[in-house]
Write a structure and sequence with these properties.
Chain A has 606 residues and is of the alpha/beta class. Chain A contains 19 helices and 22 strands. Chain A is globular. Chain B is α/β, with parallel strands linked by helices and 325 residues long. In chain B, β8 and β9 form a beta hairpin. The chains are: A alpha/beta (606), B alpha/beta (325).
Chain lengths: 606, 325
């Protein structure tokens, strides 16, 4: 039974109480309490719920919006900061790559109203294309990165980030990880207080980054970093927790609870800010203890800096650089380092775990598109979305996936490079609006011979069903204009455009064949709503007439989770049965059945 | 299976057997809840987390979303006690493992405390499409083969419960997770009334009554199972490993009848057919062919015949005739 979403929204009477909040909800709460006026984001796991939670606070308090991509989201926040209001943007780690262009200039400009970015990394790659370490952006952009270790700190650090932003004239990053974002723990919440309003600051030498201004600002940025280092030397968020002094541990963020789990009594320097690092404090700490260990997830950011200070700290030698850390891995590292005694391996259950990769849902409209793609014999560049799952058996219809919007650019390149197979790009509606459109214009402009399959399921499905400019709704659920894809695509100069129903497999096959045969850019828009969001679709289920089934398993090519083997066989192959609870009645299996033995359940009497 | 649903549906269900109840001491108590996307794993963990918090414990509840909705494995760690550091439960340290699906329960067994851990697992099997992809005649289902008896004997305290069946009997299959909450409740020292109040907060208003029935049903079932020997439900019990029949596949393609339409090439699930230089269909990768007959049945010109030859029978023939083919 799915639970009702727990509202993180405030009611004044409940202020100061203690609530169970996820890291994401706590970041949103912190931004709200800090008096944020404008917040924007593009959805991305694990950061998505931050803006969803912010949208539960009153519209009079703040404007919260989904943007078309992370760069636009950050630019919107930057605009609000220019206007003198506290502003906030949230994104996943790879979203910061998209927004980085704006960030790298804004760090020179600084802020008027406080400007905070929440960036959530995904160590372990639970739902991403890589596991880059956002803290390195702190060094690159020369700005502070705060790293909360639990939901309480997520709230407190987000509030602090706004203060630091205004005090030091800098954008500030609050870095989360999947583990922080999706761990719920108790949080003491506070009241909202809006700072004194500031007007627009008319100062072109600060706000307009022409070379002459930027050269001057770079100096200011370096001077700012020096002041920040001084501040963090004494700041309470960098916390020295004394303990037994034969060795010490320097750690930050979600690694801190792992260290405390395995070494409850050790001396620990817990850094609340992982950039810039407090040199004086680090020196004092390293000199006060024997061996010094650095426990940090992903890159050796802290370790390298301390080594540069001349201390032989130990870190990535014992704690892996790839993947998510855990109490087990931290324990194993300290065992290898001789700090903890080796533990005998507990013998336990050792069965072979079942392979259960995520799959497209029963009735997913992407299924038919990839049945057609698979039969087309094309070279297929994929994109980011649920449909990336079509790279697996049985659909196995995607050859490449790089990043948001890459499919179309990749297709242009493959076609121009003389790829002998016809080239097809597959891209979802939200991803198309995010970064696919410029590439489509490029394709038309450069006369690329590619077919684009635009998978329009009317939602940002992958992240759990968020609105976007094509859905007709805003983040707060208000009516909004919606993009007319056919008109849009024609307007950029595509002359072959067709909209088809994803549930009509024969039309899908034929239209894709024609799109591929067309010389130049063709766009085929496969149009059907996601079966989960915004409403869960459930039609009358289909059923197999078992006596007639010849076990060809043509329907199993769909990879539909509602289809499974029955106990009956034909020629020693299993006949198929349909899970009536899961089937939504899309009829795709009936359309591919070679002997027409799949029928609406109501019509089958067995 | 559970005996007395009527008595159990009274307002005050029987108290949990204190001998079996566990509670956090210096160390936090670790409960791992696992299942498949859509089963309600997160709801179970939210109920437990809120209840533990209301009892004054520090609580951390950690899960991973993202792919969860897409039929993938879902898990949620709940830890509570006086002081909880790590949000995740280290391997081998779960006091209780609650599984909403059979193979998922097995996947996470290494996380259970080897001697003392309590394992409560729904015998419901959700077979992923991946398990049914082999078209070879006699190919086995790729799903866990372990029976409840195999597993229960290897854990400190184990229960294989057909929670889905119980929920179906109560008229709402989706309440299976609440049946398991009822089972879980017997292993912890929180008052039953508090459990029920918390459950009621998390389920849709219309279904409060059926969910409370489900909760009591699960609770009563465990109470009964404790008195008898740990009970074992039957659903996952069968599934003996089928013997691998040995077939050889042979394709006859009549070149004169093939009109190069390409249908067989496109439809072949193993992608082992192609058109040759003369644009006639041929079996390019015979070792991949499973003999599923799709090409035979779909060839509009009847140009393809699939022969499934039973090797064991052939071997017997060969032995008697002394003439291998």
């Amino acid at each position: 039974m799915r639970s009702s979403q727990e509202a993180a929204g405030p009611t004044p009477a409940e202020a100061r109480e203690v609530r169970p909040l996820t890291g994401n909800e706590a970041i949103a709460r912190g931004a709200w309490e800090a008096g944020v006026k404008v917040a924007a984001a593009y959805p991305g796991t694990p950061s998505t719920e931050i803006l969803e939670a912010l949208a539960t606070y009153p519209a009079e308090d703040l404007h919260a919006q989904w943007s078309t991509n992370e760069k636009v989201a950050l630019d919107v926040a930057i605009g609000a900061s220019f206007a003198g209001k506290r502003a906030f943007a949230a994104m996943k780690h790879v979203g910061l790559n998209v927004a980085a262009d704006a960030l790298m200039s804004q760090t020179y400009i600084g802020v008027n109203g406080g400007l905070v970015l929440a960036v959530c990394d995904d160590p372990g790659i639970h739902s991403s294309q890589n596991e880059q370490d956002t803290r390195i952006y702190g060094a690159l952009a020369t700005l502070p990165v705060l790293e909360p270790s639990d939901a309480q700190e997520a709230l407190d650090f987000t509030k602090l980030a706004f203060e630091l932003s205004e005090r030091f004239d800098t954008p500030v990053i609050v870095r989360g990880t999947t583990r922080l974002s999706h761990t719920r723990s108790t949080v003491a919440v506070g009241e909202r207080s809006e700072p004194e309003p500031r007007g627009f600051l008319e100062e072109p030498s600060k706000n307009v980054m022409i070379p002459a201004h930027a050269r001057l600002r770079h100096g200011a940025v370096l001077e700012r970093e020096a002041r920040l280092k001084e501040y963090f030397d004494e700041a309470p968020i960098n916390r020295w927790e004394p303990g037994e002094a034969s060795f010490g541990v320097i750690t930050a963020g979600t690694c801190y609870p792992y260290v405390r789990e395995v070494l409850p009594n050790a001396s620990v320097l817990k850094l609340g800010a992982s950039w810039p690092l407090p040199e004086g404090l680090l020196r004092r700490y390293c000199e006060s203890v024997g061996r010094v260990f650095v426990v940090e997830e992903l890159e050796p950011v802290i370790e390298k800096e301390i080594r540069a200070l001349g201390y032989e700290v130990e870190g990535k030698r014992y704690f892996p650089r790839a993947g998510e850390l855990s109490p087990e891995l931290v324990r194993a590292g300290f065992q290898e380092a001789g700090i903890l005694p080796p533990q005998p391996q507990k013998s336990g259950w050792s069965g072979e775990p079942l392979v259960r990769p995520p799959v497209l849902c029963a009735g997913c409209p992407h299924t038919s598109a990839f049945m057609a793609v698979r039969a087309s014999g094309a070279r297929v560049s994929g994109d980011i979305g649920c449909y990336t799952l079509a790279c697996l058996d049985p659909l196995r219809g995607i050859d490449t996936t790089v990043s948001m919007g890459s499919s179309i650019g990749n297709a242009i390149g493959m076609a121009k490079a003389g790829e002998p197979k016809p080239v097809v790009a597959t891209i979802g509606d939200s991803t198309f609006l995010h970064a696919g459109l410029p590439a489509l214009i490029d394709a038309v402009y450069n006369r690329a011979d590619i077919a684009v399959l635009l998978l329009d399921n009317h939602i940002t499905a992958m992240t759990g069903g968020q609105e976007h400019p094509g859905t007709g709704k805003t983040l707060r659920g208000e009516e909004a204009p919606s993009v007319d894809y056919e008109a849009l695509v024609r307007a950029v100069g595509v002359d072959w455009v067709r909209v088809i129903d994803s549930y009509d497999l024969a039309v899908m096959y034929q239209a894709l064949r024609e799109a591929i045969a067309h010389r130049g850019v063709s766009v085929l828009i496969a149009n059907r709503p996601c079966v989960l969001d915004p409403v869960k679709i459930k039609g009358p289920a289909m059923q197999v007439v078992t006596a007639e089934c010849n076990a060809c398993q043509s329907c199993m090519n769909l990879g539909c989770p509602a289809l499974t083997w029955s106990d009956e066989t034909f020629e020693d192959r299993h006949k198929v049965k349909i899970d009536q609870a899961l089937c939504i009645g899309c009829t795709l299996c009936a359309q591919v059945c070679t002997i027409d033995c799949i029928k609406p359940a109501a019509a089958v009497k067995q | 299976m559970s005996g007395s649903p009527n008595s159990a549906s009274e307002a005050a269900p029987a108290p949990a057997s204190p001998a079996a109840a566990v509670e956090p001491s210096a160390e936090p108590l670790n409960v791992l809840i696992v299942g498949v996307g859509g089963q309600g794993v997160i709801m179970v963990s939210k109920v437990l987390a809120l209840l533990a918090q209301a009892q004054g414990f520090q609580v951390k509840q950690s899960e991973v979303h993202g792919m969860a909705k897409r039929g993938g494995a879902v898990f949620s760690h709940v830890r509570f006690g006086r002081q909880v550091w790590s949000p995740t439960i280290p391997k081998g340290e779960a006091d209780i493992l609650i599984a909403l699906e059979w193979a998922e329960g097995l996947r996470w067994l290494p996380y259970l405390k080897p001697e003392t851990g309590i394992f409560i697992c729904d015998t419901k099997r959700i077979v992923p499409p991946f398990a049914c992809l082999n078209r070879r005649p006699g190919a086995p289902l790729r799903y866990s083969r372990e029976t409840p008896a195999d597993v229960i004997s290897q854990v400190g305290e184990g229960y294989a419960i057909d929670a889905t069946q119980m929920a179906e009997e109560l008229g709402n299959e989706r309440a299976a997770n609440v049946v398991l909450l009822g089972a879980l409740s017997t292993a912890l020292r929180f008052p039953a009334a508090d459990w029920e109040q918390t459950v009621a907060k998390f389920v849709p208003k219309k279904t409060v009554s059926v969910n409370l029935d489900a909760f009591r049903r699960g609770r009563a079932w465990i109470e009964e199972a404790r008195v008898v020997t740990p009970a074992v439900e039957s659903r996952a019990a069968e599934a003996p490993a089928p013997a691998d029949p040995a077939y050889r596949v042979r394709l006859d393609i009549v070149a004169a009848w093939c009109k190069s339409c390409d249908i067989c090439v496109k439809i072949c699930p193993e992608r082992c057919l192609r058109l040759n230089a003369e644009r006639i269909a041929e079996l390019a990768e015979p070792e991949k062919c499973t003999g599923c007959r799709l090409c035979e049945w779909l060839c509009p010109d009847f140009a393809i015949r699939v022969h499934l030859e039973d090797i064991s029978a052939m071997a017997a023939d060969a032995a008697s005739e002394g003439a291998p083919r």
